[in-house]
Amino acid sequence: MPDSAMWTNTFHEAGPVLPEDVHHTRRVVLFGPPGSGKTTAAAALGRRLGLPVLRLAPRPQDARVPCAGLLELALALPALPAARELTAGLDEAAGRTDSPDDAGSALRLRRRTAAVLREAPPMTLMVDNAQWLDPTSAAVLGWALRLAPDLPVIAAERGRRPGPAGHWCGEDARAVRVPPLTAPQVAALLAPYRLAPREVTRVHTHSGGNPALALALARGGTAAAPACEDDQVLPAPARQVVGEWLGTVPEEVQELLTLAALDDRPDLDLLSELTGPAAERLLAEAEAAGLVDLRQPDGTVRFTASAIGTELVARLPGHARRLLHGRLAGAARDSVRRDRHAALAADADDPRSARRAARAAVHARQRGDHALAAELSLLAARRTPRDDGELLTERALTAVRDAAHYGDLPRTRAAVRLVLDHDTAPAHRVDALVALIDASGQHLHSVDELFAAALHAAAGRSDLTARILIRQSIWANVNEGDPHRACALAGRATALAEAAGDTTTAVMALTMRARLQRVLGDPGAGTTLDRALSLPRTAPLPANATPQHLAARHALFDDRPDEARAALLPLLVEAERTGDTEATVDVLRSLAEAELRAGRCARALHHAHRAQALTDGTALSPAPACYTSALVEGTAGRTDLALVHARRGADTARQEDNKVFLSRNLFALGHLLLVTGRPKEALEALEEVRTLEGLQQVRDPSVLRWHPELAETLVSLGRLDQAQSLLDDTRGTAADLGRHAVLPPLERAQALLDAARGDYDTAARRLAEAADRLRHLPLERGRTLLALSHTERRGRRRASARAAAQSAADLFTTHQAHPWAETAAHTLSRLAAVPAGGDTHPRLTSAEQRCAELAAAGVSNRDIATTLTVSVKTVEATLTRVYRKLGLHSRFQLAHAVAPAQG
Q1: CA–CA gap between residue 274 and residue 11 (Å, rounded)
Q2: CA distance 172 to 176
Q3: Of 49, 54, 42, 47, which is closest to residue 18 (Cα–Cα)?
Q4: Integer angstrom CA distances of residue 51 from 125, 126, 151, 384, 648
Q5: Is 365 helix (H, G, I), strand (E, B) or coil?
Q6: Which 3-state string (H, E, C) describes 828-858?
Q7: CA nearest 717: which of 766, 750, 677, 747?
Q8: How far is CA 421 from CA 398, 401, 410, 414, in A?
């Protein structure tokens, strides 16, 4: 089949993104492995050039037929006399015995082909699957194209970058490797399959962004068997794509890559030990073919698509695989990996291999290599003799914990099956099922059956039942959106655990109950949390399930970020020590929020990036990390990236039916849209947050502070009465619950409402007082000062406006809040642009002012034209003048420089 034909129609225009300057190049060679999207990229590039495209698409059999490509060119342009002459010449040559390489024949072919290109109408010549263009046609086309330098040519070919000798389509041709699809692009490609986000992530990893391979994996059930299986086999269509890809390199390269696929961290030293000095050359060939990435910071060899390694291993018979593991064991310099290979080289029923794997798992765990520990623990359990039931259970439970901590759901499930199949003790069965529930997170299938099985396994024991009720409480809150039921379940779990004398489970249940009481506005939340903090624990809890973590979260809700940070740092150490990835991510997210609230933007970015990287490297749901990334990036990094995170998080949470993080990601999205000058879009997101929070019966306004954001959005759209009602209700609730920390942002929104009503003096007073109360939160203070500057400018007090804007700019710059610093700088720039005569009035005409105000409010050009009864072109011209006069470049800047129009 032609390269990428299987996915061109599915993916339409959202294909690989080429460098922008390629679109202005006359001769382009797009290259890459099979299935990488060269056809789609070439078609998109052809459309961008704006000329009709003449597409040649040779097939594999054409490569052996001299002049087949020239004949296809001639037949594609039948109206041209030169094309008919070329066709006749080729027909005549086919009846003769002389070769087309004969000097006379070759000259005639060149002349006739050059004439075809000269007579052709304006067009772009595209040669798809150019690797199958026969050599004679390539040589003749190359000569003829030298005489037509203005003819755009796009060649798409399988393989690697053209060599230094150049390409037939021109010596100055730009060679571009077609890049792999990003994770969002793969998600778009697979949208018709309605896969869960976790499955999409898995397909992206297995395919490496190769679109044909991604589709083949999705059609075959999202890729190979679970990663914990010894004999993984790709679906047949995926094996075909990978087979074609591997077929682009010699057998000796494939043999080297097979050794790399059998090791979990192969590097050049290991492969050189096994294959000698040729290893470096062979790896370079594999890299040129796009099979491996040799640019890893730790020097390891990484397959660009993990399905490549899966296929290489699957091709090996069992005895050959064991022999190669034996070679790897002899060459490995690391004791843990030596033991891994030695265990895999042994027969599956050899008990010594189980002991070796168990020993290696301990060492891997101790040094923090938790992915390897999970693999080795499960291997040890599987290799343990079935007649040694006690040892098998011990090793299987260890495998459950290792896999669950790393977020490796397939291995967790496999280890749980071992426990359930070979142990009848209630405590062990509940341990395994609870670990599976914890590892599954939002990906539980048949959740009612799983909880029922766990309760059955508990056999009526109060302490075991309490542990299950805690997980039911979490599910009721996050997925069912019913915190009242969740709180009741946590209360039952507390009573059962205390009756059984299980203080560790009681602490966990009390912590969950305190979390829910805070959400519901129950004044007993603090007392419940104090009880949890006071009880002794006889066993460790996950760091993110401890009362200390909840106390840090409550400190954040109450705007005590330094107190929260002090509590979180020891928890981070503990989470990392135990290898609990989910707990580590949660603590990192809390730390990022604490640092952001305190104005330490660089640290906040560091923690948020770590949390996102850990999440994306495991099977954890991306919704929580995306929420934190959106908040931090939007304040300290890039708002465009922040919007990507927020949308990804919201989409994931919606698909997972995670109501808690759907609200949070929509809140982040609404906030970002508001501050980037898109209040209409912000309103849609924030109104959904209001609906979700209402359905979830969230009463405490300090937990998720959407209220002032929505009020400000309503003000910017002229819905002043709605904004006032929201602010009055929220202030009343905050006063009832003693949540004084939420009042300054509410006062900022109220001040903007006052200004919208023309009461600039009251608005300025409110803002100054709010800013004074926010001295311990520099970024909130800066935002409030920026609002003060805006208000003072509208009140025609430009000196005060400049002073407030300068203070805001200083704060944002000092604390590295880059997007806000840019906004403040633009505000200052506009305030500084005062005519020499000292006139403080805006320099816009009345028509320009009205147009600018509507645009600042997020009104489209078409709607502005309707409102002002002018044409869309007039609106565009007016806004161009506004931007020039005010020194602005976008609506984002306009929204912060001009007061939005009120309804």
Answers
A1: 42
A2: 13
A3: 42
A4: 10, 11, 10, 68, 36
A5: helix
A6: HHHHHCCCCCCCCCCCCCHHHHHHHHHHHCC
A7: 677
A8: 16, 17, 17, 11
Q: What is the pLDDT of residues 198-250, one digit of tens each?
A: 788 889 989 999 999 999 999 887 544 444 555 678 999 999 999 999 999 99
Of 328-337, 648-657, 787-796, 829-838, minimum mean pLDDT range: 829-838
State how far the Cα of 500 lies from the Cα of 510, in Å rounded to an integer.
Answer: 15
Task: Label residues 521-532 b or e (16+ Cβ within 10 Å = b).
Answer: bbeebeebbebb
Helical segments of 757-817, H only: 760-773, 778-794, 798-814
Q: How many CB atoms sit inside 10 A of residue 321's CB? A: 19
> Range with the lowest mean pLDDT among 61-70, 219-228, 251-260, 334-343?
219-228
* Band of pLDDT at residue 596, cut at 50, 70 and 90: very high
Integer angstrom CA distances of residue 295 from 268, 298, 355: 12, 9, 36
Q: Are strands 124-127 and 153-158 parallel, antiparallel or unpaired?
A: parallel
Q: Are 621 and 654 in contact (CB under 8 A)?
A: no
One-letter identity of residue 592? A
Task: Give the phi and the psi of residue 136 in degrees, each rounded to 5.
Answer: -65, -45
Whole-angstrom distance, CA of residue 903 vs CA of residue 901: 6
Between the alpha carbon of residue 643 and those of residues 616, 627, 651, the distances in Å are: 17, 10, 12
What's the angle, vertex CA 753, arms to CA 752 and CA 756, rounded to 5? 90
Amino acid identity for residue 742 in this structure: V
End-to-end CA distance of the chain: 58
> Residue 258's pLDDT is what?
97
What the block records as the tokens of 496 is 């059962």
Helix spans in 560-658 (H): 561-578, 581-597, 601-616, 623-636, 639-656
- pLDDT reading at 9 higher than 80: no
- Residue-wise pLDDT for 530-540, tens only, equals 999 999 998 89
- pLDDT tens profile 835-886: 444 444 456 777 788 888 888 887 888 888 888 888 888 888 888 888 877 7
Is 0.90 topped by the overall pTM?
Answer: no
Contact (CB, 8 A) for 438 and 451: no
Of the pLDDT bands very low, low, confident and very high (cuts 50, 70, 90), residue 13 is very low
- Inter-residue contact 128 to 91 (CB < 8 Å): no
